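Colleagues,

Please find the record for the two-part complex below.
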Amino acid sequence: MIRLQNVRKVFNADKSNEFVAIEGVNLSIDSHGATVLKGPSGSGKTTLLSILGCMARPTSGRIMLKEREITSLPERFLTEVRRETFGIVFQQFNLIKGITALENVMLPAYPNGEKHASLKKRAMDLLDLLNLTGKAFSKVEWLSGGEAQRIAIARALINNPAIIIADEPTAHLDTRLSREFMEIMRQLKKEGKTLLIASHDPIVYDSTVIDRIVEMRDGKIESSGDVP
Amino acid sequence: MGAIEKQRNILDFTLSSLGRRKGKNIALVVVYTFVIFLLASVLFFTHSLKKEASLILQDAPEMTVQRLLAGRQDLIPTHYIDTIRQIRGVQSVAPRLWGYYYDAMSGANYTLMVNAELNDRAGEIIIGNGVSMRSMSGIGNQALRKNDIIPFKTYDGSVLTLKVRGLLPFASELVTADLILVSEADFRTLFSIANDQATDLVLNVRNAKELSTIAAKITQIHPDTRPILREEILRTYDAVFDWRGGVIFMVLSGVFFAFIILAWDKATGLSAEEKREIGILKAIGWETSDILLMKFWEGSAVSIAAFFMGIFLAYLHIFLASSILFEPVLKGWSVLYPSFRLTPYISVYQIATLFFLTVIPYTVVTIVPSWRSATIDPDSVMRM
């Protein structure tokens, strides 16, 4: 589904603080599977996830999405690809404070021009699916960590993306909530979503949901293999 | 259809966003409204005064002839009437008697004018509302009413008492507030003016196009006179009100610049939280243009709301609250304008000018910094 060819990402290129975040990465992600990018802090997981999710462009190399080269697409088209193909769950959840949980869930779909009533209904259905109906009209800053993350998941699902990307999703959750998160991922995988998760939490990479682990260190892929 | 829904969705989000930064937005709207209020008040006020003055002058004589002595206005001999009447094109010539009377007790200047209707009612006067409120008879703050007696000090030092026959109607308060109508005999007694003299002469002509020719002939026959055309008075009024409006504008420009600085600071300085939000919106699939659209709606909502509130308050201030804030500057020297209601005249052209000078620049100013933030890479939000 996604193919990276010899991808390299350099920050602050040609400056004294130049930093090579990932180097020579070749990776293929198949549909309907769950892949974990595993590695210590600074190993390049988040950068690779950004590139896979069309949020950043590589300094060199190529990215193919469903056999279509997207590396050099203009920003507008890349945004469209990102909106339609990827749902992203951030490490800090990144919900917008001051507005309700429901509005947060609806936000990614606003630029699509869908009728407000039908969009609201879909958002309510998703909240229902994640047992958050009662929190729909609560402001997000009043929610617990687990609830905030489920809102972030609902938001990632609102545009019905094929791929869910999660960056260190359990970093701010206790063990119980981390396991709950993995159960939601299992459900999504069963529904046919492709999962891409960056994590160094054993609850994530040891979970039976995961099909494949890509180990990273110093910006390079150390090993990549299917979970037995 | 999708495009309209998109606009609606983004507008919805913008409006709920405004509520989230209440302090900042309320402060902006309050200051913005105040500036619009002041500017619109000046515009409404000067425009209405000019309009009112020109309406009143419509009934004024087409030409007034004064006599000058050593460059100052002097009494004009009434026999000039006969020679002026001989000029071709002159329809009528009439003498006028008017002047000012300073009342030491109230500290006010009154305009005294002879009214033909009072000529067979010597000893009686009709007074304007301002005169009635500023009692000259020393009976405290009570307003003068019909049949009250007012004492006047004549030019030979004696006292002349006149009885109030009635009050002038409120509608014409701009020119009648300080006006006292008297009979010719009383006027002449009060100011010791001989029977063969008048303050000035008023003329009506058959053809308005001949006004300047007739004026030239009058100065030829009577070189000591100065004919004044109605059009010239109108132009002077315009210039005076424009000048006063200009003075106020100069004072207000300081306020206006202070507002620009505040608006620039408040509207352009995106907080870290706002930048973060823009990053999130981009990461979840908003395009740069969507963010700019949101910021456009945000700027428009603040400035349009403030604009209309400012205009509304200015309307109340000028037309219902007697322009209490800058009455002393704009209405001149008279102390006789304690309350004064202008008839509302609003020029669409002025409102449009004010709109384009405030709402449009403000909206642009709010978009520019957002554009800078909106072009950041969406992956920056991954590292927050």
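Residues 90 and 327 of chain B are 41 Å apart (CA to CA).

Comments are welcome before we finalize the supplementary table.
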